[in-house]
Amino acid sequence: GDHSSSDFIEPYVSLSYALGPVLAKGTVNYAPKQKALELDQGADPKTPKQDNLYIAGDFSTAIPKTPLSLTAHIGHTFGPDWLAIGK
User: Fold this and answer.
1) Could you tell me if 57 and 24 are in contact, meaning their C-beta atoms sit under 8 angstroms apart?
2) Which residues lie below 8 Å from residue 4, measured CB to CB, with a gap of 6+?
3) What average pLDDT is seen over the chain?
4) Among 19, 25, 38, 79, which is disulfide-ready with 52 (CB 3.0 to 4.6 Å)?
């Protein structure tokens, strides 16, 4: 049968702080060990379950005298290599 699973729980916490005209935000996401994070999706019960930690930072600021703003995002995942594209 189909052992695939794409649903998983991933709680997160984020904090933001204004640095003058720039809003900085840090986020930490943690996905505990669960079936959806297994490469084989639970097909082999001997495959070890894996968890995942994702840490990110966001920065945004308004462009004066325009309705536009600039936003930057950077993050890194600490988990199975196959979860991150290009690793």
Assistant:
1) yes
2) 41
3) 83
4) 79
